[in-house]
Please model this.
Amino acid sequence: MKTLLVTGGTGYIGSHTVIELLEAGYRVIVYDNLSNSSIESLDRVYKITGKRVEFIEGDIRDKKKLNEVFTQYDFTGVIHFAGLKAVGESVKWPISYYNNNVSGSLQLLESMNRHGVKTIVFSSSATVYGDPIDLPLTEKTPTGSPTNPYGMSKLMVENILSDLYVADKSWRIARLRYFNPAGAHSSGLIGESPKGTPNNLMPVITQVALGKKKHLYVYGGDYPTLDGTCIRDYIHVVDLAKGHLAALEKCFSSNGVHTVNLGTGQGFSVLQMIKVFEKVNKVSVPYKIVDRRAGDIAECYANTHFAEVYLNWKSKFGLNEICRDSWNWQLNNPDGLIK
Model:
């Protein structure tokens, strides 16, 4: 049985990916500092899969702790989610983002290299493309001009990984540039459960629909889009998790740097998202349009052809399922994961 280290594995995308890994027969060790997640997610994973996950509380910037973990376990590979992830927040606190996302990744890679673990799936982002001139975005779309520190931190790590392979061709690396994760597991047991104020659209929509917030703030109504609000490619988190499994298996079969967009190929505006959510779940989501948010771009969606051919992966769930599963999660967990 192959043993995997999953950094940030108690988080939103991490916990959904852990389910897919367990069901595919992997042994999973989760390493997380719980800064924006809860250990309760792994208890929920057990309820879904019937399989326990070994958990180690630690920070990826902790060199000593990482080396202890790599000494203790014989890892076959690493899936690296750990890091800060909010665009607007990164504009306010760039040092924190570079410290966590870049310095932390460097510590992780140093430990991997020292212990001969040279397979990694990296959680990157479509923000590495910056404000695109042409859409949809392909893997050949130029990078290098992200509009916020979050995107820049992801691009820096991507470049580090590329340089690592140039220096040592035994590395097997997947850089997954995914778009806007949303939705939840159909069981309603795990979903997006941020600590404090949510930064992503869907958890705010569900909290407004539940009455926990009076209204949704829509940041910007004057973008050059069909209704003036930002357009994004929303991908169901379960589809995204399956994409990580496909990328991992690609790495095991082929050395190199595998760079892949994970999206649906369709863009929806914020107002479209609200309307679909209201229709699917028969609830009301009051909103107010306010000033634009720093670091945002008007429009972003993927060309998914390469992922379909290269990874034999394609998203299966659409906006209706995203809205249905998000609402089911919120109704079953009005306060999120408390522990």
Q: What stands out?
A: The chain has a mean pLDDT of 96. Residues 94-114 form the longest helix (21 residues).
